[in-house]
């Protein structure tokens, strides 16, 4: 199982989001602003300390994962802003598990490395075979490594690959595989263009973003007012329910007193009748208010439905 860790944030595990059309990116990765080469070196050293190494029969300090370092560059001048991305990728070497003597966790890591390199090699092979007449689909989605390297393999990029080989005859087979890998990659045709935004384009884009946020703010204000009104209506409905309960109690008391009605004096009968009419009038008022509240509630719900989704 592939795992992605942030080497600048205590090896925090991360996730990849995106799609083939808009590209893939690592969510919540740590970004550090740098202004010079001297700012970059300490970060590389910090990341190197977080990398996973292990000793094998072939290498005393074998890297157990691939490493990607991404540098976003912005150049500001009178013509606008030029944006570019520099990605340095250190691919862990493929291993013959039997020869390396990897066991346990190292064995699992070696299998994952070999699998990701196999999928990368397959993507390079397909991308290298693309021509003007044939355009086979490159399956970048099968591996986290190929997702992150998608733009470098036939996209808007300039790519340089350094293949490390050994002069020893013992490693002749591995050297041949590395050279074949590099030869296939050399055949890929990238389509690099300058990513430059004019000042006018940036101003228009900024105004558009501002307008979208202002529209969203107005929607949020309206939704807040509606929710506030809903809360007020709910409070009034609760108060009406409480009044209903009190009236029911009074009706019950009144019903119990009717048994003694014949024994009451005329004046007492008149007072009891007035009290009964007062209770009924209050009950009608409460019912009328309840219906009005329900009508307002329905109107607010219809207004809420007319608003667009919250995400812009």
UniProtKB/TrEMBL annotation:
Keywords: ATP-binding, Coiled coil, Microtubule, Motor protein, Nucleotide-binding, Transport. The keyword Hydrolase does not apply. GO terms for cellular component: microtubule. GO terms for biological process: microtubule-based movement. This is Kinesin-like protein. The keyword Cell inner membrane does not apply. Residues 210-250 form a coiled coil. InterPro entries: Kinesin-like_fam (IPR027640), Kinesin_motor_CS (IPR019821), Kinesin_motor_dom (IPR001752), Kinesin_motor_dom_sf (IPR036961), P-loop_NTPase (IPR027417).
């Amino acid at each position: 199982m592939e795992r992605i860790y942030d080497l600048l944030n205590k090896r925090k595990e991360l996730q990849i989001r995106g799609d083939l059309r808009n590209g893939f990116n690592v969510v919540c990765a740590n970004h550090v602003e740098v202004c010079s080469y001297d700012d970059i070196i300490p970060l590389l050293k910090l990341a190197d300390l977080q990398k996973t190494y292990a000793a094998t029969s072939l290498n005393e300090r074998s890297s157990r994962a691939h490493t990607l370092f991404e540098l976003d560059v912005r150049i500001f001048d009178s013509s606008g802003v030029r944006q570019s991305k520099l990605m340095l990728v250190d691919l862990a070497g493929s291993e013959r598990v039997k020869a390396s003597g990897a066991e346990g966790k190292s064995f699992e890591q070696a299998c994952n490395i070999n699998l990701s390199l196999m999928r990368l090699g397959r993507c390079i092979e397909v991308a290298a075979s693309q021509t003007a007449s044939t355009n086979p689909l490159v399956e970048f989605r099968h591996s986290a490594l190929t997702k992150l390297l998608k733009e470098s393999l036939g996209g808007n990029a300039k790519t340089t690959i350094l293949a490390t080989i050994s002069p020893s005859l013992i490693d002749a087979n591995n050297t041949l595989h590395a050279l074949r890998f590099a030869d296939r990659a050399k055949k890929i045709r990238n389509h690099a263009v300058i990513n430059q935004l004019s000042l006018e384009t940036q101003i228009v884009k900024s105004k558009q973003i501002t307008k979208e946020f202002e529209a969203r703010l107005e929607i949020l204000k309206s939704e807040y007012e509606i929710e506030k009104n809903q809360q007020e209506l709910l409070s009034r409905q609760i108060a009406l329910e409480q009044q209903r309960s009190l009236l029911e109690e009074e009706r019950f008391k009144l019903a119990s007193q009717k048994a003694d009605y014949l024994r009451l004096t005329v004046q007492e009968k008149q007072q009891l009748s007035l009290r009964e009419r007062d209770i009924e009038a209050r009950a009608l008022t409460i019912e009328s208010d309840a219906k009005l509240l329900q009508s307002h509630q329905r109107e607010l719900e219809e207004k809420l439905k007319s608003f667009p989704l919250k995400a812009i």
